Every structure is written in C-alpha cells, then in structure tokens.
DNA sequence: TAGGACACTCGTATTACATCA
DNA sequence: ATTGATGTAATACGAGTGTCC
C-alpha cells in the first residue's frame, strides 16, 4: 500500500515536471489538479483508517429488554434475589475498569466463590447450577480487617479447594482414572441471550457485575468472565475482518489509480516527444498547451482540436466535450 | 519514597469438546 | 456410522495495573 502511494507520488512529480515543460499548469488547462486527486485518494484511505467501519456485532437475535428474570437456567432453584431487572448492578455501578481492579473495595465486596457444578460426572448436564451445599457464597466479613491478606489467602485456598473438588466431580470417571478429558459446557439460549444483552451494555465487567450476572445465570463467576473474554475476542476478530476487507478495497483503488497515472504519464511523454506542429523547416510552432484537458469524470487527459478552442460555443465546457467522449 | 511481591484482569493463542452437514 | 468443518467453552501464558509492605 505504501509502495503504491510512493509510486503515485513519483508519478505526480513526473507529471508536474512534464507539465512545467509544456507550460504552466493553468495554461495546460488541466481541469483537475492531480495533486488534489492524489490527496483525495489518500483521504479516502485515511478516512477509512480514521473511521473504521464499526460492526454491530451484538446479538442478531432481538433480545427483549424485559428479559425474564429467571433466565431459565436449566435447573434453577428460584433465586430470591433475582428481579425483573436483567442487570441488577446497573443502578449501582458505573465504574471504569481501573477503578474496579483489585482494589480493597472489590475484595470487600460480596465475592461469590461458587466454583464447580456440584458434581457432574460425564453425561450430566454441565449447566447444572452450583450446588448450594458445595458452593456456598463466601463473604469477606471484615472489609477493614488489618489481616486482609490473610482473608484473601483463605478465600483463595478455599476457592482452589472447591474448584479442585468440583473439577474432579465434574470431570467424572475419566478424570478419576487419570484421563484428561474435559466436559464442555453448553450455555442455554437464555443464558447466552442474557450474556449478550449484558455484553451490549458493558463489554467488560467489574467483579460485582460479574458476580451478579453469574448468580443470575447460575454460573460460576469464572465462567462469566471467560465468556466475556471469548466474546471480546470474537468481536475483535470480526472487526479485524471488516478492516481487512476495507484495506483490500483501498488497495485496489490505489492500484487502479496508479495504473491510470502511469497511462497519463505515457500520454504526456508521448506529447513531449512528438514533434510539435511544423510550419516550416526552420520554424516550429509548439502545440498549444491549452489543448490538453482532463475529464473530471473519468479523469483522462485528452486533447481538443483548435477549432473548438478558438470558437467555443456559449455554455460550452471543455469538460463536457471530453466527458462526452467517455 | 522506591521497589519488590502479590492479586487481579486483560488479550491472545491454543486446546478440546459439541454439533451439524 | 463416519468424518471434516465449525463454533465455542476452557486453559495457558505473559503483560499491565493497583495495592500492600
């Protein structure tokens, strides 16, 4: 792409040089300034980069704003905390990522460490909600505790142990026998829809949002986190594809313009090389520069006969003639 | 106050499973 | 029934940032 642009600049210089040899640019009658043309082309491409087409990569399925509260997790025990608001954090949080990362307040928050599925050997629905017996919420009870680190460690250890237990139980006999198979969760349509809906609201989640959503969906916070990570990756991939397509088109445009400029350069060189109008052996009348013109529509350099130049009709445009020739 | 340790989250690449044609 | 393609949940890893000591 850059090579094309450089080549085009060189062409432009060459054209300008030839133009200067023929006379001034104005006297040439070039109706379209090549530099403007090139600049326009650059602008086209730069505009593309400045304003990349944004994809609407959000769910294609129309999702009702008044999404059902229970979001129909496969076997959901009715959660008393669920409301008709699909985003329970919404009125509460509006914080940027930098504010949400690992601050004390986040640890202080009612962090849900509900890993595991409550035991799901092979063949059992992986969407099974975490068993309340196995995966109770852990609440950091003393936010202002001096021993915050100890609390964290306890939570972390608890989480690891629980994950280990849940993983073992969820992986079933294969894992117990030393196999490495992993059961893959399939989110229900309702779960996916709510995740998409919340992604539309925030492409990233702070811990509280994550926990609230996980609770609502009867998933582990980690699963929600992973889903958002994958979703962001998919969005970026799609956007990259769109950008790539735009660049491809821009490249094609530049190639075409390059080809056209090459042709124009050849024409100008031919004019320069060709003997001017010979009146006699010792007198040369140079070809009037004004006989050169450029069609604004097809941007071709053409010549005009001297009659037309000498006696232009009312309303006559040099462009219209050359355009008509196109 | 500077700096190391730590926790947390992110993006990215990859793997592995489920589904479908 | 088998197989390859596709979609996607899950994992691994390194980087960035904030907090604590």
Explain how this protein is built.
The model is unreliable at 1-8, 17-53, 55-180, 285-291 and 304-326 (pLDDT under 50). This protein has 2 domains: 2-51 and 240-325, no CATH class; 97-219, no CATH class. It is 52% helix and 4% strand. The protein is built from 11 helices and 4 strands, in the order αααααααααββββαα. β1 and β2 form a beta hairpin. The chain is mostly helical and 326 residues long. The two termini are 29 Å apart. α1 (2-22) runs antiparallel to α3 (34-50), α1 packs parallel to α9 and α8 crosses α9 (221-273). Strands 1-2 form a two-stranded antiparallel sheet. Strands 3-4 form a two-stranded antiparallel ribbon.
Outline of the structure:
Residues 178-238 form the Homeobox domain. The chain contains eleven helices and four strands. The chain is mainly alpha-helical and 326 residues long.
- Please state the structural category: mainly alpha
Beta-strand residue percentage: under 5%
Reading side by side through the largest sheet, how are the strands ordered?
A: 1-2
Count of folded domains: 2
Query: What proportion of the residues is helical, as a percent range?
Result: 40-55%
Rg computed from alpha carbons, rounded to a whole number of angstroms: 35 Å
Number of helices: 11
Mean pLDDT: 54
């Amino acid at each position: 792409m850059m090579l094309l642009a450089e080549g085009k600049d060189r062409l432009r210089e060459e054209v300008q040089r030839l133009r200067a040899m023929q006379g001034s640019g104005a006297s040439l009658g070039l109706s379209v300034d090549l530099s403007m043309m090139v600049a326009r082309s650059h602008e086209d491409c730069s505009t593309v980069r400045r304003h990349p087409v944004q994809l609407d990569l959000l769910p294609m399925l129309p999702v009702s704003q008044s999404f059902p509260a229970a979001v129909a997790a496969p076997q959901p025990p009715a959660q008393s905390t669920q409301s008709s608001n699909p985003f329970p954090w919404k009125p509460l949080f509006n914080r940027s990522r930098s504010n949400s990362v690992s601050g004390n307040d986040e640890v202080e928050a009612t962090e849900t460490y509900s890993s595991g599925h409550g035991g799901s050997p092979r063949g059992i629905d992986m969407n099974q909600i975490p068993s309340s017996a196995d995966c109770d919420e852990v609440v950091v009870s003393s936010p202002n505790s001096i021993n915050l680190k100890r609390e964290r460690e306890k939570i972390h250890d608890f989480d690891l142990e629980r994950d280990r237990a849940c993983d073992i139980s969820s992986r079933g006999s294969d894992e117990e026998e030393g196999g490495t198979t992993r059961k893959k969760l399939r989110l229900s349509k309702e779960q996916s829809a709510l995740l998409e809906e919340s992604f539309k609201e925030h492409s990233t989640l702070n811990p509280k949002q994550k926990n609230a959503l996980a609770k609502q969906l009867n998933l582990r916070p980690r699963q929600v986190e992973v889903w958002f990570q994958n979703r962001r990756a998919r969005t970026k991939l799609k956007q990259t594809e769109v950008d790539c397509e735009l660049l491809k088109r821009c490249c094609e445009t530049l190639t075409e313009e390059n080809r056209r400029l090459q042709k124009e350069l050849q024409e100008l060189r031919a004019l320069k090389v060709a003997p001017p109008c010979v009146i006699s052996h010792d007198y040369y009348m140079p070809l009037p520069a004004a006989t050169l013109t450029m069609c604004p529509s097809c941007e071709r350099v053409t010549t005009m006969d001297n009659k037309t130049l000498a006696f232009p009709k009312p309303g006559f445009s040099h462009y219209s003639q050359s355009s008509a020739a196109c």
